[in-house]
Amino acid sequence: MHVLQACAEIYPLLKTGGLADVAGALPAALGAQGADVRVLLPGFPAILDGLESPAQVAEWVSPFDPAPVRLLYGRLRGCDCSGYVVDAPQFYRRPGGPYADEHHHPYPDNHLRFALLGWVAARLAQNLDPYWRAEVVHAHDWHAALAPAYLHAEADRLGHRLAASIYTVHNLAYQGTFAAHHFGELALPARYFQVHGLEFHGQISFMKGGLYYADRLTTVSPTYADEIQAPEQGCGLDGLLRDRAASLSGVLNGVDDAVWNPAQDSLIPHRYDARRLVGKARCKAALQAELGLAEDPDAPLFCVVSRLAEQKGLALVQQVLPRITAQGGQFALLGSGDPGMEAAFRSAAQAQPKAIAVRIGYDETFAHRLIAGSDLILVPSRFEPCGLTQLYGLRYGTVPLVRRVGGLADTVVDTTLESLDHDATGFVFDDFSTDALEAAIRRAFALWRRPGRRREDWQLVQRRGMATRHDWGLAAEQYMGIYSQALT
Ligand code: ADP
Description:
Elements: E1 2-6, H1 18-32, E2 36-42, H2 45-49, E3 51-61, E4 68-76, E5 81-87, H3 89-92, H4 110-123, E6 136-140, H5 146-158, E7 164-169, E8 177-178, E9 199-200, E10 203-205, H6 206-213, E11 216-219, H7 222-227, H8 231-234, H9 238-243, E12 248-250, H10 278-291, E13 301-308, H11 314-326, E14 330-337, H12 339-351, E15 356-360, H13 364-373, E16 376-379, H14 389-395, E17 399-403, H15 406-411, E18 427-429, H16 434-448, H17 456-467, H18 472-487
Parallel strand pairs: 1-2, 1-6, 2-5, 6-7, 7-11, 11-12, 13-14, 13-16, 14-15, 16-17, 17-18
Antiparallel strand pairs: 3-4, 4-5, 8-10, 9-10
């Protein structure tokens, strides 16, 4: 089965969030299931730099710009897969980020930049590469969401289907909406701009194009698949998602064992596993020293690794910080995003440098040290399609404390008297409120300090989490099933 994965980021070459982790791990996992997988990416500088021995597959003028576009093919360094890269310097070779400039302003031609990605994906199901033709086109997030629409339009024109199309929503909140007057620039039939198509409240929605035209839809957890069919989390698309419920599945993301495994992780100072946790204690001591925190093994260290965005619920964390430190806990954060939130966390750290440490920025290596050295990881999201950091926490014996929402609800089992000896792996709270978060934190302290138990109960939960497996093999198997269904 020839499978094309169309997406805008891939770990380790270019990453702004969890999408890159998925794109970096899924191809090899599908390959292990027997699929012949290639990735399609825009030629951002970091992607082109990582393309080894590129061969030119085609050169042409696209409908989106008079300058020629080249399609290159090669191995993607560090990705364990090969891929096509759309080399369109007029669109992709820019000094800012992949979606926005240095000042965080979205590029004004994003509709063209990402229409091109979807358009090339659809062409790879035809004859763009004479030696390889996609039978399944799997498009990820709004950036690649027009691929199913272009495939649909071509199928209409030719009278037969070119490839099965799958569209995966990694986050429904980022939709790729553009002013209606751009529709004529997208090289799609005029009739596609309507309620039964790409039109969304008078605008063009790339996300809706994916949701409307793909043969099969997936999102990254079963609970999120349910949540997005209701108005609260449906971002205005819940009606369409309900209509398409029979074609929608939730497939949980996995953890890439080659990147996130405390027994083999070269980015952490001491390696460990569930049987021998002494390495984790050493990682904690090293982290406390690195961050200038009190070097106290008995102070439970809470961490956060996150984009600082409203979605992540970190305003709640800011409010409960005094409660954590008053009970003798410590807190360390790695994140960047909202400037107000960055400033608030920074000043909390300045006020209590022995108990709170904050690093603003994006630092893949430090993320490993922070997760390995902490005792708990906080993920109190307002909504969370899957969430990866709680999965890394589970793997690293860093007990997750999460809100019961989306993929967090699917992956962490709350600790109660009943679940402690059975299936508890973390702490879970329901209401999006400081009271509910605080109550969960109190329960975490209670387990940490349970009298007479010398932390045995804590380690029970910790070790059980480390033993749970969210591997990509399982996810790949599910995707293969969905591809097969879409092909029939
Ligand atoms: P989202 O995609 O919504 O940002 P996920 O939990 O799905 O959230 O994925 C986030 C990914 O980005 C994880 O791999 C996490 O470790 C990483 N990450 C987030 N913020 C940072 C940061 N400041 N530095 C390093 N890695 C980060």
